[in-house]
Sequence to fold (250 residues):
Amino acid sequence: MPDYILETKNLTKEFKGFTAVSTVNLKIQRGHIHALIGPNGAGKTTVFNLLTKFLIPTTGTIHFNGADITGEKPADIALRGVIRSFQISAVFPNLTPRENVRLALQRKLGISYHFWKSDSILKQLDRRAMELLDAVGLAEYAEVITGELAYGRKRALEIATTLALDPELMLLDEPTQGMGIEDVDKITDLVKKVSANRTILMVEHNLKVVATLADRITVLQRGAILAEGPYAEVSQDPQVLDAYMGSAHD
Fold:
């Protein structure tokens, strides 16, 4: 396997004359946590949408494990093991966490919508569902209606349903958005825990979270890469301080 699990070459997306992403060259190292940061409108979400093929690049290519996946459909990308949190994180509020994770496991096995399957068949998935809930600290809430969970626990459940698809590359879009300090710390610890034996590419505004988790950071500004490197290096870059980090600390 190549050292870089994901690479983009001159990735560009234009919308009626507006360039949202401009010649972005990413190299995501296998087994690392890589953060994509930048001010609002920098193009981070567009890059995520391009990587998971919810948008088609205007020009440029995307390679995963050395294979060109630029022309593949979102479902094909997911089958390769590239899973974006929101793709399977629309948890069902009227189901329990166990049932939500079990549905994600059914999708992995290709029986997502076989609701007519007998309970005995579906219960075979319960053991794995409980293992995943335990991994994210939700085992004691397995039978609580999901809609009644605190926000931080719902986000933990989203990570559990992501893990149910056994991702090789997890794309996490703002995993701590809207959280209080306590929940932020819990989710930060959880992301670090689940990063074992897999690669994570994350968009995150909380710079404390980025500094804690990321092995490498790419800073976007106006759709282009402004800087890249370890947090200690990037956080001292005058251009980055002016474009993003300085304003974030004002």
